[in-house]
Amino acid sequence: MYHFDEAIDRRGHNSAKWDRRFIGEGKDALLPFWVADTDFRTLPEVNAALAKCVEHGIYGYTLPPEGCAAAAARWQKVRHEFEIQEEWVTFLAGIDCAISTAVQAFTQPGDEVLINTPIYTPFFEVVLENGRQVVSSPMRLVDGRYEFDFEDLSEKAKTAKLFLFCNPQNPTSRALSREELEKIGEICAENNLVILSDEIHGDIVFDGRRHIPIASLSPELAQRTITCTSPSKTFSVAGLVASVIIIPNEELRRRFEAVKERNCINTNILGLVAMQAAYTHGDDYADQVTAYLQENRDFALRFLRERVPAINPIAPEATFLLWMDCSGLGIASENLESFFTGAGLRLSGGTAYQEPTGQFVRLNFGCTRATLKAGLERLERAVLARK
Questions:
Q1: Beta strand ranges found along 170-310 (DSSP E)
Q2: Which candidate in 35, 84, 137, 387 could, as Cys together with 17 as Cys, close a disulfide (CB 3.0–4.6 Å)?
Q3: EC number(s) on record (predicted)?
């Protein structure tokens, strides 16, 4: 049994989320619900594996540990019914690196790269930084749930070379259905697009759903897909920057590896040691952290609907991220950040994800229930003070 209610003080340990430069200190410090990592201690087997590596005391040039690719393959098969071969696997420092590598490997300067919005910030930043054009297909909010506009996506795919998307989706926390993924695959196949699927949140899905890797739907779809995942969100090891990139197509893998080697973006030994331990021993932990996060989600949704009805939360189907419509507060978009700061909270503003109205924020509920409750109570007091 893991203790996710354990309060662990992350201040003074270089945590980006809890750093005083971003949240202040003392009685005026903000409660941080922004950076997308969790405040939970990782599983003991990860710590033991890292301690063994550190005890050795030599950090020379290293190869990926024997068995690391096999552990990643086991995880995909057991957790997601996605059978992969070890030779399809390569490792990178992080999925942001994978996005940049894919953009360079599969497009040329000036080419169009298709994304859907709102979306995780690097999806468009990396494209622009590499001299490509971003083409956005906005998702539609229908009855409190974000959906793809497949007619729009199909039209814009005609001139694109690469489709970047994430499933589960960040920041809307959708877990895409088989039917949606099949439609995405059909559109990409018709237009000969390479697909990069960021599935970093795939272990954390709620209400009995199952994460479906798009590459698992058919051998044909797998041949055009780069699947990116990592233990970082599930096991609280984001700072060790290690990700798994799965590329069944030999030619795509060769091109991806060539850019990776040219840019020197391999991962480090500690990240891979942690990955192997997590993917070997982490099944119970993953189940328990998902159950705890689902309870956090339910607590937050209930609290907001009963006590802060001016804020409309979009119920997460996955992830520990809560996307909230704040238009009911009646606060101008340019003043929304200062309102939350005044409430004693640090959240992520929706414009960073290319949300056009400026009325959405993202709240990370990957924390203890007590921290979540304290943050929501601060929000309630701030809203009541406006009346």
A1: 194-198, 225-229, 243-246
A2: 35
A3: 4.4.1.13
